[in-house]
Structure formats: C-alpha cells, structure tokens
Specification:
- By secondary structure, this protein is mainly alpha-helical.
- The protein has one domain: Serine Threonine Protein Phosphatase 5, Tetratricopeptide repeat, CATH 1.25.40.
- InterPro entries: TPR_rpt (IPR019734).
- It comes from Sphingomicrobium clamense.
Length: 158
C-alpha cells in the first residue's frame, strides 16, 4: 500500500512526458538540415527532381524533419501532384499539429484540388495560431479568395 502513491506519482510524471508540447522538441540532425537547404536551392533553381531527392535524403537522415515533409509538399504542388502534397504535409502535421508552414502548403494543395471547405478549415487553424496575422495566413487567404473568384471568371486558381 505504501508504494501506491509513489506509483501514481511516477505514472502521472511519465504521462506528462508523452503529451505534445510538454516535452522538449528534439534537435534535428544537422545533416538533414543541410540536405533540406540543398533541396531548397534546387527547388528555387527549378530542378524538381534534385530537390525531391535532397528532401528524401533529409528524411532518411532524420525522419522527424518536418521542414523536409513540407518542402516535399511544395515540390508535389509544383508537379501538380496535389494529393501527394496533402499527404506530405499531413506527415509534418502529425509530428507537430501547429506547424504553420505545413498548414499553409496543405491549404494551397487543397485549394488547387477544389477542396475549399477543407482549405477554409486549415485557414481557421492558422487564424488561431496567428491572431495578429502571419505570412502563412495571408497566403492562405489569398489562395482561398482566388478560388472563390475563379468560378465567376471561369479560371481555375492554381
């Protein structure tokens, strides 16, 4: 009976370590970070294959690198593979549900797919994360506004 309070205290302590946001975020492997930077340079140069390869290598080096998942989502959007972009950003959001970049890239893909209601749900999450505004919220607002205007002009917002 004397061990019951100790066991309860240890159980409570252990459960707080498993709660997202309570435990310290672990550092991303520097090699993975370097590969993401290499991929971003390739993406800016328009070399989508090299960018994708670098981002995949970054994930091999560190599977918890959210930036690599988000960047792979960006490459997928450039390749008009919107479902793949949503899948990549979903993986980033599984690691960190409040990742603003992942939400913004996913919103862009959802708008391109015509899933405006889901895009608006992401926009609402961004609004909660950025009460005073942020670049991701602004970009999402612009994408959703363009999509809303597209049926009136007959153009698709991409």
């Amino acid at each position: 009976m004397r061990t019951t309070p100790l066991a309860l205290a240890l159980g409570l302590f252990a459960s707080t370590l498993a709660v997202p946001g309570v435990a310290q975020e672990r550092a991303i492997d520097p090699a993975s970070i370097a590969l993401v930077e290499q991929g971003k340079a390739a993406l800016e140069a328009g070399n989508l294959d090299a960018a994708d390869d670098a981002f995949e290598a970054a994930l091999v080096a560190d599977p918890a690198n959210r930036a690599a998942f988000v960047a792979m989502g960006r490459v997928a959007i450039e390749q008009e593979l919107y479902g793949q972009a949503v899948a990549m950003t979903r993986k980033a959001l599984k690691l960190e549900p409040t990742d603003r970049d992942a939400l913004a890239v996913q919103t862009e893909a959802l708008v391109a797919m015509g899933a405006i209601e889901r895009a608006k749900a992401n926009r609402a999450k961004l609004a909660k994360l950025c009460p005073t505004g942020c670049a991701q919220l602004t970009a999402s607002d612009e994408r959703i506004s363009l999509a809303a205007a597209a049926p009136a002009t007959g153009e698709r917002a991409n």
